[in-house]
Amino acid sequence: MSNNEKMVLYGFAPSVWANVPRVALTELGFKEGEDFETISIDLSKGENFNPDFLKINPSATVPVLKLGDKVYTDTATIVPALVALSPHPPQTSEGVSTSIIEETHLMSHDPNAMLLMARDEDDYAEKKKGMAFGFASGRQEGLDKYAPLAPSELKEFVENKQKSNQALLDFYQGTPDEQTRKTHFTQAKALWTSAGIFIRGVLTQAIKKTPGAFVGGETPSQEDYHIIVWLARVVTDASLPPQSPSSSVIPRLQELMGGHEFDPVIKAYWDAWLARDSFVKNNVF
Ligand SMILES: N[C@@H](CCC(=O)N[C@@H](CS)C(=O)NCC(=O)O)C(=O)O
């Protein structure tokens, strides 16, 4: 790929969905510097609400891929664009199942909400002094700074983000009453229950349909890029170190997701990704 066609990827290292194109770029044989460059948008400072970034992506999310004069603002469109350009397209790109990609992205098991929401009093105490509070407060500073600068058509959108983030911040920095805490814990637990249903249902069935360890078969497909970053984030949401061995991942996830056992294909799936550079070297978590 020549220099004037170099792709630009807007992301943020700790962003779960921004890891989808990072895994894809490595799997598909693109090289940082040669084929693409990255620009970091610090979500923990609310930089995604900077009016300059809103011009690029009015939804205020990363990842974003710029390809010449084309701009892709969602992983669902970024990955096919990369596959179309790839020197090594995945074998199974033909039969991409958009439904499993959509299921992976469902808000009912949103890994960002699982990161920020506390399941019980102990988890609340942890998150109060940890990353959840730090993220919410840095993001609020950004939102307070950028909301007055938002273009008129996005003002309501940014102000709503400002309000909902302030509510999360109040939850962690204040002393919410018992009922408020209970309601919050119930919502957080529902996210984990939904994640368990997804793993034991749709994901298990999809892996079982193919002879290999991946949904794509012997090697990962487009669907797998989405699934693995989701799963990797759920693992760290469960307070496990990134890239933990399956011997600690499987029991911990089973415990948090209602105690039901996972089919062995899930362990094999995790192990298969632990053996891939695109997962390990990109430090996906
Ligand atoms: N459907 C989008 C979701 C992207 C998304 O939600 N990204 C998160 C980071 S993982 C984000 O940018 N959130 C904005 C924020 O934190 O304000 C996609 O698949 O690209």
Automatic annotation (TrEMBL):
| Alphabetical list of Pfam families matching this protein | GST_N_3
Annotated GST N-terminal domain ranges read: 5-90
What's the protein called, per UniProt? GST N-terminal domain-containing protein
